[in-house]
Design goal:
single chain, alpha+beta, Aminopeptidase, Alpha-Beta Plaits, 2 domains, 4-stranded antiparallel beta sheet, 3-stranded mixed beta sheet, 27% helix, elongated, Peptidase_M20, succinyl-diaminopimelate desuccinylase activity, Bact_exopeptidase_dim_dom, hydrolase, Putative succinyl-diaminopimelate desuccinylase DapE
């Protein structure tokens, strides 16, 4: 602790939300609300693991709404981009680089890589914009004088709420010549209706509505949710990660203002 800052890995993302929401749980349960409250501090959020929130959902009663605590500077994320990681492979034919033989798999991959770079899916949204595709890794070749017969590359796909990941996968396979294998399709984009009572209350409180480009447990929730919490995502996963004590105190007031007495 130094000058109002609490330092430590995970203090900002998302330890501050964990302790803040626990205190809010205690406050809201001190009087009768129109809804029942469940507080869940789940693990494996960074890897979307089966022992995290997805393993807990089946043990819970019917859930009508959820709050996901993530560092958003207490602004209201009403939509979140999904994630699909693709392993792609272009195939050629090996040959000696000094002779006019073989089929270079790298050259075959270039056309598909260019497509991933340039293609824009037609459906875009106000908060999340277009689907974003980024080639982030590439690997080919065994030595300098051998024409590579295989070129593999990885594509990071960030979907918006207009597409399910399965739908995007089918469209991508129609457009490229390489083989495309998804590591998972379960982390689709989410969005909460803007006329939901919690969103309406947030607007009344002057909270900014936005779409989050980064993934969280929100992607695994099969019911409406928002993402909101103390802290700044720019501090996450940094050597000097910290949270301001003042941010936690202010966040408690905002959470209580959102949910105390609301009719869900």
């Amino acid at each position: 602790m130094d000058n109002g800052r609490l330092y430590g890995i995970g203090s900002n993302d998302a330890g501050a939300s964990v302790v803040t929401l626990l205190q809010v749980f205690f406050i809201l349960t001190q009087k009768r609300q129109s809804y029942n409250i469940i507080y869940a501090a789940a693990a494996e959020e960074e890897i979307s693991g089966e022992k995290g929130i997805s393993g807990l959902i089946g043990e819970l009663p019917k859930i009508d709404f959820a709050v996901v605590g993530e560092p958003t500077e207490m602004q209201l994320a009403v939509a979140e981009k999904g994630l699909m990681v693709l392993d792609c492979v272009a195939y050629g034919k090996a040959g000696h680089a000094a002779r006019n033989e073989g089929e270079n798999a790298i050259y075959k991959a270039l056309d598909d890589i260019a497509w991933f770079r340039d293609y824009i899916f037609p459906k875009q949204t106000e908060f999340l914009g277009p689907v974003k595709m980024s080639v982030t890794q590439i690997n080919a070749g065994t030595q300098h004088n051998v024409v590579p017969d295989q070129c593999s590359f990885v594509v990071d796909v960030r979907s918006n709420e207009m597409y399910q990941n399965e739908e995007l996968l089918d469209l991508i396979k129609q457009k490229v010549n390489c083989t495309v294998t998804p590591r998972s399709t379960r982390l689709s984009s989410t969005a909460t209706p803007l006329d939901h009572p919690v969103v309406e209350k947030g607007k009344q409180l002057g909270l900014k509505l936005f779409g989050s480009p980064t993934l969280s447990d929100q992607a695994l929730l099969p019911f409406p949710s928002i993402k909101i919490g103390p802290g700044d995502s720019a501090r996450s996963h940094t050597a000097n990660e910290y949270i301001l004590i003042k941010e936690i105190e202010e966040a408690i007031d905002v959470y209580v203002g959102l949910f105390d007495g609301i009719d869900l």
